[in-house]
Structures are given as structure tokens and as C-alpha cells.
From TrEMBL:
<dbReference type="InterPro" id="IPR016024">
    <property type="entry name" value="ARM-type_fold"/>
</dbReference>
<feature type="region of interest" description="Disordered">
    <location>
        <begin position="1"/>
        <end position="22"/>
    </location>
</feature>
<dbReference type="GO" id="GO:0005737">
    <property type="term" value="C:cytoplasm"/>
</dbReference>
<feature type="compositionally biased region" description="Polar residues">
    <location>
        <begin position="1"/>
        <end position="15"/>
    </location>
</feature>
<dbReference type="InterPro" id="IPR051245">
    <property type="entry name" value="eIF5-mimic_regulator"/>
</dbReference>
<dbReference type="GO" id="GO:0016020">
    <property type="term" value="C:membrane"/>
</dbReference>
<dbReference type="GO" id="GO:0006446">
    <property type="term" value="P:regulation of translational initiation"/>
</dbReference>
<keyword id="KW-0805">Transcription regulation</keyword>
<keyword id="KW-0810">Translation regulation</keyword>
<keyword id="KW-0010">Activator</keyword>
<comment type="similarity">
    <text>Belongs to the BZW family.</text>
</comment>
<dbReference type="InterPro" id="IPR003307">
    <property type="entry name" value="W2_domain"/>
</dbReference>
<dbReference type="Pfam" id="PF02020">
    <property type="entry name" value="W2"/>
</dbReference>
<protein>
    <submittedName>
        <fullName>Basic leucine zipper and W2 domain-containing protein 1-A-like isoform X2</fullName>
    </submittedName>
</protein>
<keyword id="KW-0804">Transcription</keyword>
<dbReference type="Pfam" id="PF25504">
    <property type="entry name" value="HEAT_5MP1_2"/>
</dbReference>
<dbReference type="InterPro" id="IPR057397">
    <property type="entry name" value="HEAT_5MP1_2"/>
</dbReference>
Length: 418
């Protein structure tokens, strides 16, 4: 065995040189702001030159880090303090959105500047949307003219798809709504949006983010009615938006009514109570009988879980149509009967296991005095829709012939009696 002393391992410190990319940079927008402001002062009101300057500067300046500063300057001329006021101690420029002319053409030109910038530097998209959300929350800190320009620009940006309609959430801020700022801003915004696109495009964008049913929230609770919204926006020259909101309100009411009907059926409420309740809702929401029969049919058919086996579903449907008194209560007009037949046709087509049940359901409702022979014959000859037409007309052929013969016999008997 060796007598040599084994040296114990020791811990020694070792300094590593920090890589330059790992060094934490101090957030200091001052120099960035000075560079942008100087460039904007040089380009002045020439927006093509501004776009070129911003395009070139992105290669040298840290747009990713200072996106908020960049957008603040382009919109307001300098960095914005909380609330929307300009920070007093920093450099500003007079060449920005808020100092530009208040007209649609100028705002379209500014929208192009932002569009080019974001297309060139895609990573700015999220920051730009966050900036717009912030600016909308700061509306009270801006002058009326500044708000108008921002509203027009926002409408154009929404039309161009540069930002999502979800930014409108900022307009539901309680203070902005309470003081009428949100509604006034929305007028200018929707005018420019609809000018660039149309109401159908606007409606689609609103639906996409679940805003289509929230337009009334632009007003405080004591004014949050369809009538007030309609008058306010119609008087402002936006009748198409008023009509859209009214239609959405009606759709919402119909959905609530359908839900209530299903709950009443689940509880086993008496038919007469369900009918009284439904008629009250019809009157309250100005719902026609034709619309109502569609709601009742959908409620009745949605209430039960249908068997997926075709041979069993007809039997199940016949048992389920014990609710025919509900259907009868809302088919006092011929047009309502026709609409019910069309709804039945569409339902049986859309739910394939009902394809062979259509004729049996029609006969059942005929026997229950829900459908008249006049309505059935009219549906058969001219009022049917395209869905499954050939299949359902073939199913109904023998029954229709029987109805026609019965009608002829009746007429013959009446003539003999005369």
C-alpha cells in the first residue's frame, strides 16, 4: 500500500464571462423615442416618407422591446402617461395621428402606415392590438377631435383585418359607458367600418368574437334598451346597425323563449300554462305566430333524446307528439301551418333517422287538427323547400291523393245537397 498522501478535492471559484445576449438590458425608451421623434419631424406630414422611415428604422431600433413607445408616438406624438395625457418630460413630435386632419381620407392614409409597418414586422401585431385596447381605455383623456380620429382609424383597421373586433371590449368600461363616451366613439367607429366594408362584414366580425349580442352595453343600464339604441344610432345615420342590433335582440329573445319552453316541458307544466306564458312572451317581444310555431316545434323536438335506430324513432316520435296541443295553439293561421310543415321537412332532412318518418308525423298532426288539408295540399304543390323534396313528396303522394279525393267527394255532396 502506498504511503503517498491522497490530495482531497477542493472547490475553487471560476468566473464565466457573461455572453452579451444574456445580459439584461435596462428598459430605457428615451433614446428610442428621441430617434423616432427626430425621424418623424424630418419626414413631416408626408406619410409615404413616414412609412419608409419606419420600415428602415426597424432594422436598427428595437421595435419588439419598445413597441408601446413606438405606437404612442405615432398616435399621440409622445409617450402616454396612465389616463391618456402626454408625459411632460419627454420629447414630442407634432406629426402624429392626433394632430392630423380630421377626415376619412387622412385616417385611411394613416391606416396604411400602420398596415405597412405591421406587415413588415409581424411581431408587432399583438403589441399593436394591445395598444388600441389601451387607447380606448384612455378615451376620456383625449379631446373630442382626437377621439374622432382614433374612432375612424379603428374602424378602418377593423375593416382591413389589422385588429380583431375583441378590442371593442375596452368600450364596455363602466366609466366610459356612464359618461356617454363609448356610444359617441362607436358612432364614428362603425361609420368608418361600414364605409370600408358593409354591415354583413361587420356583423360577421362581431359574431366571431361574441360581440353581436353586446351592442346595447354601450349604454348605461337605465338606457340599455333596443328602442334607445335604435333611435340613437338611426339619428346618427347608422340605421343598418340599428336594424342589426334589433335583429340580434330578437334572436336572443327567441333563444330565451325556447329555453323556457323546454324547461316548462321538463317540469311537466300544464299545456294551458305553457300556452299562456308563451303568448305573453309573444306580445312582450312582438313575436309573430309564424315565428312562434317555429320556436315551439324546435323546443318540442329538442326536448327529448331521440333513438338513433330508424325503425324505432318513428314510434318514439308519435308518442312524443303528445305535445300537439302546443303546436295547435300557434297554428291558427294558414301561414303558420305552412311554416310548421317547412320546419318539419327541414328537421326530417337534417336528422337523417327521421327521413322515413315525415309522412307519419304529418298524418298524426292532421288527425290532431294541427294541420289542415288546405295547408298540406299547398305545401305539396308549391310551398315545400328543396331539402329532401323528392323523398318527402313521394312519401306524401298517396296521402295527398286521399285528401284530394276526400275534398272532391265533399264538394260533390254539397252540390247534391243544394
Amino acid at each position: 500500500m502506498s504511503n503517498q498522501k491522497i490530495q482531497k478535492p477542493t472547490l475553487t471559484g471560476q468566473r464565466f464571462k457573461t455572453r452579451k445576449r444574456d445580459e439584461k438590458k435596462v428598459f430605457d425608451p428615451t433614446q428610442f423615442q428621441e430617434t423616432i421623434v427626430q425621424g418623424l419631424n424630418q419626414t413631416g406630414s408626408d406619410l409615404d416618407a413616414v412609412a419608409k422611415f419606419l420600415d428602415a428604422s426597424g432594422a436598427k431600433l428595437d421595435y419588439r422591446r419598445y413597441a408601446e413607445t413606438l405606437f404612442d408616438i405615432l398616435v399621440a406624438g409622445g409617450m402616454l402617461a396612465p389616463g391618456g395625457t402626454l408625459s411632460d418630460d419627454l420629447t414630442r413630435t407634432e406629426f402624429c395621428l392626433f394632430t392630423a386632419q380630421e377626415d376619412l381620407e387622412t385616417m385611411q392614409a394613416y391606416a396604411q402606415v400602420f398596415n405597412k409597418l405591421i406587415r413588415r414586422y409581424k411581431y408587432l401585431e399583438k403589441g399593436f392590438e394591445e395598444e388600441i385596447k389601451k387607447l380606448l381605455l384612455f378615451l376620456k383623456g383625449f379631446t373630442e377631435s382626437e377621439r374622432n380620429k382614433l374612432a375612424m382609424l379603428t374602424g378602418i383597421l377593423l375593416a382591413n383585418g389589422n385588429i380583431s373586433a375583441s378590442i371593442l371590449n375596452s368600450l364596455y368600461n363602466e366609466n366610459l359607458v356612464k359618461e356617454g363616451v363609448s356610444a359617441a366613439f362607436a358612432v364614428k367607429l362603425f361609420k368608418s367600418w361600414i364605409h370600408e366594408k358593409d354591415i354583413n362584414s361587420v356583423a360577421g366580425s362581431l359574431r366571431k368574437v361574441g360581440m353581436d349580442n353586446r351592442l346595447l352595453e354601450l349604454f348605461p343600464a337605465n338606457k340599455r334598451s333596443c328602442e334607445h339604441f335604435s333611435k340613437y344610432f338611426t339619428d346618427a345615420g347608422l340605421k343598418e346597425l340599428s336594424d342589426f342590433a334589433r335583429n340580434q335582440q330578437a334572436i336572443g329573445s327567441r333563444k330565451e323563449l325556447q329555453k323556457e319552453l323546454q324547461e316548462q316541458m321538463e317540469r311537466g307544466d300544464a299545456f294551458k300554462d305553457i300556452i299562456v306564458s308563451a303568448r305573453e312572451e309573444m306580445k312582450k317581444n312582438n313575436i309573430s305566430e309564424q315565428t312562434m310555431i317555429g320556436i315551439v316545434w324546435t323546443s318540442v323536438m329538442s326536448y327529448v333524446e331521440w333513438n338513433k335506430k330508424e325503425e324505432l324513432v318513428t314510434e318514439q316520435a308519435i308518442k312524443h307528439l303528445k305535445y300537439s296541443p302546443l303546436l295547435k295553439a300557434f297554428t291558427s293561421q294558414g301561414a303558420s301551418e305552412i311554416l310548421l310543415l317547412v320546419k318539419m321537412q327541414e328537421y326530417c332532412y337534417d336528422n337523417i333517422h327521421f327521413m322515413n318518418s315525415f309522412q307519419k308525423i304529418v298524418v298524426l298532426l292532421y288527425k290532431a287538427d294541427v294541420l289542415s288539408e288546405e295547408a298540406i295540399l299547398k305545401w305539396y304543390t308549391e310551398a315545400h323547400v328543396a331539402k329532401g323534396r323528392s323523398v318527402f313528396l313521394e312519401q306524401m303522394k298517396k296521402f295527398v291523393e286521399w285528401l284530394k279525393n276526400a275534398e272532391e267527394e265533399s264538394e260533390s255532396e254539397e252540390e247534391e245537397a243544394d
